[in-house]
Known about the structure:
Two copies of one chain form a homodimer. The first copy, chain A, is α/β, with parallel strands linked by helices. Helix content of chain A is 31%, strand content 25%. The first copy, chain A, is built from nine helices and 15 strands.
Amino acid sequence: MVNDKVNVAVLGATGAVGREFLRIFAARSFPVGNLRLFASARSAGQTVDYLGNSISIEDAATADWAGVDYAFFSAGAGRSREYAPIANAAGCTVIDNSSAFRMDDQVPLIVPEVNGDRLPSDAKLVANPNCTAAILCTAIAPIERRARIARLVVSTYQSASGGGAAVMEELRAQTEATLAGREIMPEVLPHPYAFNLFSHNTPIGEDGFNEEESKVIAETRRMMGRPDLAINVTCVRVPVMRAHSESITIEFEGAAPSEEDIRQWLNEAPGVRVVDDRANNHFPMPSEASGTDDVLVGRIRRDPSHPNAVLLFVSGDQLLKGAALNAVQIAETLIRLRS
Amino acid sequence: MVNDKVNVAVLGATGAVGREFLRIFAARSFPVGNLRLFASARSAGQTVDYLGNSISIEDAATADWAGVDYAFFSAGAGRSREYAPIANAAGCTVIDNSSAFRMDDQVPLIVPEVNGDRLPSDAKLVANPNCTAAILCTAIAPIERRARIARLVVSTYQSASGGGAAVMEELRAQTEATLAGREIMPEVLPHPYAFNLFSHNTPIGEDGFNEEESKVIAETRRMMGRPDLAINVTCVRVPVMRAHSESITIEFEGAAPSEEDIRQWLNEAPGVRVVDDRANNHFPMPSEASGTDDVLVGRIRRDPSHPNAVLLFVSGDQLLKGAALNAVQIAETLIRLRS
């Protein structure tokens, strides 16, 4: 890099996460030099506006990655496996939002506020975690730093955006049809979504856990540096557009910290905002987390059912801290380390 | 009673639960003799159709309860406290859906499948439990009978119907407005409800738990006959019309039963239907629980984070097993005991 700007590419530029990258670059004044947008052949040739410039979408299959400093991948695990080696070979640092490399020991899995100190400055490929795991770890890491966690019990309330733009559109269209009294026919998802909820629609393993749950468990352990951390997760899709919520029971190895201590640790933590106003019944909710960089944390209270446990309720924007924002923060960390 | 029919009254006949009573009477061939409908003065004089008969709504404030055998109350705790003694004095058995008497030692709190054996035949006042507690206990009682539970961790996904007809209408109207791009203004609830969720909107106690959560804890302990049962509950309102769902971790005092045993116990239990098809990703969800008498139970799996624990996911119709159906089943139990 001969100046302060970096040349950037987005793979999956037409998706829900891809579109979010452009807003985040602008909002954070990310030092974008040349910007290139890649997608499937179907979208190639379309143009997208970025800060007044019309940028033409290129076909990812024939992309030449030369000259790109940082590439943000958000086009599914298959395309990540296909294109990451090519982009790396062209000298490009890839920050990958898919699950392709998250459990690869050679690839750092990073939330900067959680384990940014374990990001090597020369990393050419960095994995961006599962959205639910990223939001969970952002909320609990400031606590784990002071009081060692023994076990987590998590139930999620996951938004449509986790399934991409098509699922968000399905929720919108189905809800409209339901209100109009029209028959609905699920297309993208296996179950009706309007005014409904269901167990996360990923395949179920031998142990009865679906892939989303298994990812949250494995990635949380990896990011927290706690390979044996006891954790159970139930992932549920709810009819909310773009923020995930999580109900969390934290059991500690020793005595539970006080509610006041936890509130203070979270208040001081980057990437977290405490929303815990009992008098006004005001706690984290998707309507306030959506479009917000911080993960909202509240309902901090002692668990009456366990001597060493505390409960939390968390909401975070699935497309921001759960995806594009965290990826951009990884790039910002690398730029800082490399400057 | 000179014949097999009983004279019935419904207090709160115009509410979401009240209207459900009439459907249930008809669907179950409940032996309704004379039917009287009571509501506030505002609704008095309106008529309601029941099996082809037009029934005029009477003002509850001036009601004469003489001749009523069974009265179903669903008009809030204040009205229950006011009218239950009057109805009892007139010889009427009251089954009360409010929270007024649920923790009164003199008043049985009953889900027939859970603790119907503790319903005295001469009970003149019986409390119908909180909807979330009723659905929870229906699901776990068949398990507790064979394997003693040490602790429950519950996160809920509660529907609009729990707040009554006005909240259901608020969800519908807000969602319509949101889809049309119109500004929304919460009226009944404190927070936006369309495509949103929030911590249950009941006042928060000193311990950080809201009233709904405290009810679920206290009533579950009472119905299960386990005054010291360890339990934590997080109650969340989700944009679903009329079925509550619950994510449940059950820790046992001894070794956890096998998934197969639990599935069999639940399959044999009245009031429960196992929906646990891993291959087709088909589990309990509100769209299938709504309008269904049974509580749906699935996602039965060992908890990888605890040697003696099992997880479940449950959906039940808030207006049926969570309210009107259970009240009618209490009356059916009394009729049987008294015949």
